[in-house]
From TrEMBL, chain A:
The keyword Cell wall biogenesis/degradation does not apply. PANTHER family: FERREDOXIN. This is Ferredoxin. InterPro entries: Fe-S_cluster_ET. GO terms for molecular function: 3 iron, 4 sulfur cluster binding; metal ion binding. Keywords: 3Fe-4S, Electron transport, Iron, Iron-sulfur, Metal-binding, Transport. The keyword Electron transport applies. SUPFAM superfamilies: 4Fe-4S ferredoxins. The lineage of its organism: Bacteria, Bacillati, Actinomycetota, Actinomycetes, Streptosporangiales. Its cofactor is [3Fe-4S] cluster. It holds the Pfam family Fer4_13.
From TrEMBL, chain B:
This is Cytochrome P450. One of its GO terms (molecular function) is oxidoreductase activity, acting on paired donors, with incorporation or reduction of molecular oxygen. The keyword Heme applies. It comes from Thermomonospora echinospora. Coiled coil: none annotated.
């Protein structure tokens, strides 16, 4: 997946501002008015992003590949 | 009724009076500086927007309490808790929370719903077999979350028998000597430590095995730290959930219209009913309401202004969720118990960094426990007055006598 690009989505209706994503993947998530949003899109594949998806208490984060297919949650 | 100069702390007073005092408080000022019998002064924030602003602001930390500063509170705060996740700040908080957070996400918790349903049905079968009336606390409210968290952690049946005694000792605020508390803490520590050694040798698909493996993969973690996390999961893993099952059932038994609204469509209404129970349950039950200590306090690392009030560096500050949960700017008809309430961003489980780790699990358990009870026993009623637990931080009941 060398040149693959991911798109990060945060469902702000589900986000509770818990900041796990900001704390484990600070390059990719930022708190904005109490809720998380991606810093930039698309991004290079990243283990930190995958951990953020896995740790989000309200399962509010999804990651898609270029074709729109789901990378996580798989 | 109008309250000329609302004072805080207040009560206990009847719910209607408490609601008027809280409304006057929010109108008068965003927060009150309270002097507590333990730990001294602390700002208590009454307005919902100001609570959220504080909880989202990383300049408020908890480290001073871990380092030994007494927690401002109206009871002596159990020392055990001040050494746990709840009192850590990033980056330590992140390092520890990530060890267990995966197990408690909404997505993971949903996979446990079917099993939780089976537990609820099994417990009700046993209640029915034993005959009416019964004590809902022992027969149901404690058993359901203990079995769920016991399964998640991988604690065998015989180990769960002591959960209530251990937890109540660790959460004790009065009525126990330091020696008695120490004894229970040591027993729980030794028990979990032994169990994790077994799981390290023979890993299972459970949380204690995962923690043991995490210890092996990360040299910075000590055995003691891992065991303390397991202790927190035991102590935090069932007690509050049981309390809200008890309080929620009692509130519905006391509110015929809301009970009818639930019964009309249990599966459809139970998610909002559980949120409303978390927001408002003590008001729906009646009895005395007090305004005093709130959620666990923070300490300001620098001067911070919140809603026009200057909180100075070193001052303690906490959320008063009871008042904030009735803020008219956020909740429509805030004084009313409404199990179908659609917008309900209550702060009972906190918000932000320290939002309750077990929130998705607790919500699922409350939905299954309360929904199933009213579905299976539609004639449920209170058989006599409930008996409340004294001297334990989380409160709860000893006896909730019900018949059906």
């Amino acid at each position: 997946m060398g040149r693959a690009r991911w798109t990060i989505e945060v469902d702000r209706r589900r986000c509770i501002g818990n900041q796990m994503c900001v704390n484990v993947a600070g390059d990719h998530f930022v708190l904005d008015q109490g809720k998380s949003r991606p810093v930039a899109n698309p991004v290079a594949p990243s283990d930190d992003v995958l951990e953020a998806v896995e740790l989000c208490p309200h399962s509010a984060i999804t990651v898609r590949d270029e074709s729109g297919g789901l990378v996580e949650p798989s | 009724m109008t309250v000329a100069k609302p004072e805080y702390p207040f009560g206990p007073v009847p719910p209607a009076e408490a609601l008027e005092i809280m409304r006057a408080l929010r109108n008068d000022r965003p927060m009150t500086k309270v002097s507590f019998p333990f730990g001294g002064e602390c700002w208590l924030i009454h307005r919902h927007d100001a609570c959220r602003a504080m909880l989202e602001d990383r300049r408020f930390v908890r480290q001073p309490f871990t380092a030994g500063r007494p927690v401002p509170y109206d009871v002596e705060f159990p020392e055990f808790l001040t050494k746990t996740l709840q009192f850590m700040d990033p980056p330590d908080h992140t390092r520890f929370r990530r060890l267990v957070a995966k197990a408690f996400t909404m997505r993971r918790v949903e996979t446990l719903r079917g099993k939780t349903q089976a537990i609820a049905d099994e417990l009700i079968d046993a209640m029915v077999a034993a005959g009416s009336p019964g004590n809902l606390v022992d027969a149901y409210a404690l058993q359901l979350p203990i079995r769920v968290i016991g399964d998640m952690l991988g604690v065998p049946e015989e180990g769960r028998a002591n959960f209530v005694q251990w937890s109540h000792a660790l959460l004790a605020t009065s009525g126990m000597t330091p020696e008695e508390i120490g004894e229970s803490m040591t027993s729980l520590y030794v028990y979990l430590n032994g169990l994790m050694a077994d799981k390290r040798a023979d890993p299972q698909d459970d949380l204690l095995s995962a923690l043991a493996a995490a210890r092996d993969a990360d040299d910075r973690l000590t055995d003691a730290e891992i065991t303390e996390i397991a202790m927190l999961l035991v102590v935090g893993g069932f007690d509050n959930t049981a309390n809200f099952i008890e309080l929620g059932v009692l509130a519905l038994l006391s509110s015929p219209e809301q009970r009818a609204a639930l019964m009309a469509d249990i599966d459809g209404v139970i998610p909002t009913a559980v949120e409303e129970i978390l927001r408002h349950v003590r008001f729906a039950i009646g009895g005395g309401i007090s305004g005093s200590a709130g959620l666990v306090p923070f300490v300001a690392t620098e001067d911070v202004e919140i809603s026009g009030v200057l909180i100075r560096a070193g001052e303690a500050v906490a959320v008063d969720p009871t008042t904030a949960n009735h803020d008219d700017n956020v909740f429509a008809d805030a004084d009313v118990f409404d199990v179908t309430r659609s917008r309900n961003p209550h702060l009972t489980l906190s918000h932000g960094l320290h939002h309750c780790l077990g929130a998705p699990l607790a919500r699922m358990e409350l939905q299954v426990a309360i929904g199933t009870l009213f579905r299976r026993l539609p004639g449920l009623k209170l058989a006599s007055e409930p008996v409340y637990q004294q001297g334990v931080l989380t409160g709860g009941m000893i006896d909730l006598p019900v018949s059906w």
